[in-house]
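The aim of this short unit is practical: by the end, you should be able to scan a pair of folded records and say something sensible about each. We start with the first protein, listed as its amino acid sequence and then its C-alpha cells.
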Amino acid sequence: MSRQATQEAASQALIAYGSKIIGTLRDYLSDTDENIRARKEIPGILARTGSSRAAELLLLELGKENTDLENEIIEALHKMRFNSPQIRFSERPVLVKVAVLIKKSYLLIIQIYEMKTDKKKEVLARDLENNLARTLKQIFELLGLIYPQDDIIKAYQNISAGTKKALDYSIELLDNILKKEVKDLLLPLIEDTSFEEKVRISRRMLKAAERIDES
C-alpha cells in the first residue's frame, strides 16, 4: 500500500471515532514536541469530522501567535465551511486573523518594492510575490467562514482575474457585504492602482494599523 493510501486509511479510522477523538487530536495538534508531519495531518482530519467543536479548536490554534500550522489550518477551515455549511464559525477570532494577514500583505508589498530596486534580490522578490498571493488567498478563505462563501469566492476570483472591470466588481461586492472595519483595512489592498501607489498605500495603512494596536 502506498504511503498516501496508508495515511488516508489512518485518517478514516480516526474520523470513524467521531467526536470522541477530537480531544486527543487537539492535544497532538497543540503539542510542538510532536512530529510536525503528523501534526500537519490533524487539521484536515478535524475538518472532516464536521463538528462545531473541531471548528472551535482549529480557530483557537490558528489564533496562537507562533503557530507553525497556519497554512494547514486555514485550508482545513475553508474545506470545512464548504463541506459542512451548517457550522457557524466564531466571528471575532476569524476577523483578528484576517487583520493580521492583511497587515502582513501590506508589509510584503513594501518588501517586494525594496527587493526589486536591488537586481541581486529579484529572485527573493519573486518568492515574496508568491507569499503575497498565498496570503491574499488565505484572507478570502477566512472571510468565507463568516460571510456568504459564494460571494467571497466570486470576489477572490475576480481579483485574481486582474482586469479593471473584474476588480471594480469585487470592490463593489465586498463594499456591500463586509463590515466597515474590514472594508477600511482590506479594500486599499486590492484597489486598481499602480504598484508605486500601492507601496505608498501600504506604508500609510501599516502606520494606521500601528496606531490602532497602540490605542
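Turning to the second protein, read its sequence before its C-alpha cells, just as you did above.
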Amino acid sequence: MNAPEQLRDREHRYDPQRIEQKWHERWQSQPELYGAEPASSARKKYYVLEMLPYPSGALHMGHVRNYSIGDALARYMWMKGYNVLHPMGWDAFGLPAENAALKNNTPPREWTLGNVANMKRQMQRLGFSYDWSTEITTCLPDYYRWNQWFFLKFYERGLAYRRKSKVNWCPECATVLANEQVIDGCCWRHEETKVEQRDLEQWFLRITDYAEELLRDLDTLEDWPEKVRTMQRNWIGRSEGAQVDFKVADSGDKVGVFTTRIDTIFGATSIQLAPEHPLVGKLIGNDPDLLSRLDELVEEQRQAREAGKLGETEKRGFFTGAFAINPFNEEKIPIWVANYIVMEYGTGAIMSVPAHDERDYEFAKKYDLEIRIVILPRRHEQGQQEEHALPYTAMDSLLINSGEFSGLGNQEAIQRMTRLAEEKGFGKGKVTYRLRDWGVSRQRYWGTPIPILYCDKCGIVPVPESELPVLLPEKIEITQQGGSPLGRVPGFVNAKCSKCGGVARRETDTMDTFVDSSWYFYRYTNAKLATAPLDADAVAYWFPIDQYIGGVEHAILHLIYSRFWTKAMRDLGLIKNSEPVERLFTQGMVIKNGAKMSKSKGNVVSPDDMVERYGADSTRVYSLFAAPPDRDLDWQENGVEGISRFLAKVFRVVVRYAPLERQNDAGKASSPVARDLERKLHQTLRRVSTDFEGRWHFNTSIAAIMELLNAITAADAQISSGAVPRRQVAAMMRDLVLMLAPFAPYLAAELWETLGEKSELLREPWPKFDADSAREEEIEVPIQVNGKNRSRTVVPAGLAEADMRERALADEKIRPLLAGKEVVKVIVVPDKLVNIVAR
C-alpha cells in the first residue's frame, strides 16, 4: 500500500484516540464553550445538575452513567436554544479523607485536592460539558466560610441550638451519625459496624420547625419520582392525635402521653414508660430489685438499637408500684416500665389499650393485665354487633364501655373527647412527627469548624461574622481517639471571647458534611462571589433547578436536608423560591458480579481503562444504551466493544457520503427507496426528540439511530446509483450527526467538520422532524375467516403481529362471523394477510 492509500485508509478508519485527543485539546483551549450567559439573558434558562461527587480518588462507571445522562440532556438543551447552566464541584469534606490520612500518612487536604485534580482530569477527558468557571470545592475556605455564616444566622433565629442528647456513635468512624445515617443498626459507611448509643452535648438544626411544610410541599413536586416522595413522607411521619396528661396518684407529677386513638382511652388498663423516662427513677426510688430490672431493660434497648431491631425484641417490663389517674373516668391504673417504649418517639410514655393495639395486647397477655374492649365493628343488623378477634384496631367502629361517649362512631368520639380534654385542661389536640432535629455535630477534623466560642463568664458566644472564616488548621495529627482531633490543637482551641475579651475555648466539633451539600447548587450561580453566599438576582433567574440527577439513596439524607435549607434561606430573605428542584431523576445503579459497583465491593471498572481501549464516546454511549436510565445496568465490557463497532460504522458511512454535498444533484425523481429513507429519518428524529422531552429512554434513542444507519447502508447501491438525491443524502448525514451529538460529542464534532460545517456544533439548532414524513406508509390487508376473504383493513406498514391480530378480531365485518364460535388461532402474515381459524 502506497503512502496516499495509507493516508486514505487512516482517514476512513475510526480512530477514537486520535479524534478525541484532537477535540479534547481544542475544547480545553475554549473554557467559555460551556459557559452560561448571564442572568440578564433573554434566552429561556435551563439548569441541569448532577449531584456533586465525593473526591474519592477516581471515577467509576457508576459516576460515568450519572454524568452521561446529565451531559446528554445539557447538550440537547443547548441545541434547543436554551441558556444552559451545567456546573460541577466537589463534596470534599468527610471521613474518608481522615481514614486515608490514617492509612497513608497523607494530610486530608493534600489527599482530597489530589483526588479532585485526578477526577477533574477524568471528567474533562470524557468530554463532559461542565462550566469549570463555576467549580466549587467545599473544603476550601471560600466555600466553608458560608457554612459558618449560615450557622450563625440559624443560631440568631433559634434554628441552631445545643443540648445533651443520646446520639448514634460509630466506633469505626469515631463520630456521631444522624438518625438517617444509621441503616439497620449499622453505620451507613460501614455496613457491618454496629452503631452505639452515647450521651453527648451536640449542636442541632431545628428541621422539625419545617416538618409540616416539608410534608405539604411534597404534593407540589409532581416531577419527582413517587418513590422518593413516599420515602420522605414516611420519614417525616406525621401523626395527628391528642396529648393527654395522667396524674400520678398521691403525687403532683403528671405523665403526658400522645395518642392517635383517644377514642380508646376508656380501654387503657395501664401506663407504660420508657426505661429512660425521667419519672422512672422517682417512681421506683432505691428499690434494688426494680433498679436491677431497670438496668436490664436499658441494656436490652441499647442492644436492640445497635442491632437495628428496636421493637422486634421480646416485650418485657415491670410494675413500678405507682398508679396514674385516667382523667376521663378517674380510674387508677398501674404504671409500668416496658422495653418496647422509647424516649425518642412521642413523650416516652403510652396509655396501654391491649384490646385495641397489637403491641399492648402482646404485653398484657404476657403479664396478665386486664384487656377491656371499648370499640366494636358497626352494627350490621339492628341490635347486633360483629364479633371480632382481638386486638381489634379498625377505625370504622363504634364505642362501648366508654361512658357518655358510648354509641358514637370513633371519628366523632375522637373530636368530642379531644375537645373535652382541652376544655377540662388535661389534654389538647396535637400533631407529632417521626422526623427529629438534625444533629450536625461531628467529632472529627475534616469538616467545617462550628463558629462558636465557650466563655466561663459569657457562656455560648457566636464568632463575629467579621472573623469568618474560622480556619481549619492544616497541619494536625489525626488519631482514632474519641473526641475531635481539633481538641488536641491548642492554637485552635484557645481563643479570646468576643464579648468580654476574656479567655474562651473554641467549639472543636465540625459540621456534618451534609451541610455542605444542602445549598451548594445556589453557589454555582455566582461561585466567585466574595461578599455573600449567593447572588439573589442570579438565583431568581436560575431557580428552581430544572433537572436534578442522582441516586435514590439520597432520597432522605441529602434531598430532605436541601429542601429544609432552601426554606430556611427563604425565611432569612435571601431567596424567594421554596423548593430547590423542579424535576428529579434517580438513575439506576451499575451492577457488576451481582453487586452495586463500588470500591468496597472490589468490582469497580475504571473509565480510564475503557477510554484507553474503546474511547470516551463508546464508554459514554454504552452507559446510556445498555439499559433505560432509571433501571440498573448490568456491566458487560463486550457491550462497550459493540458500541465501538457501531460508532466506527457511523464514521465510515458519514465519511463515505460527505463528498455528495459538494457534488451537483443528478436531478432524478424521488424513488421508493428515497421515500423510505426520508420516512426513516423523520421517524428517528421523532423518537430521539420524544425521548429527550419525555421518558428519557436513551437506549431506544440510540437503537433508533442504529436502525437508521442500517437503513442507509442497506440502500448503498441505490444511493451510489443516484436513486436517492444527493442533497437528501447530505441532509441525512447532517441530521445523523446532530442526533449523535448529545451522546457521542467527540465523534459528532469530527464528523460535523468532515461535512464541511464551520459552526459550533453545541450551538447548532436541533433538527425538527416532519410529522407527515414520519407517518408510516399505510397498506390494505385482507382479513380471512377459515381461508376465505371476508373483509379488508388499512393499517400502517410494519404493524406488529399482536396489533394486527387485535385489529382483525375487532373488525366490524368479522365480529358477527365469529359470534358463537371458538377462535382456534389467528395466522398473521405481516403486511400480507390475516387468517382467523374458527369453529
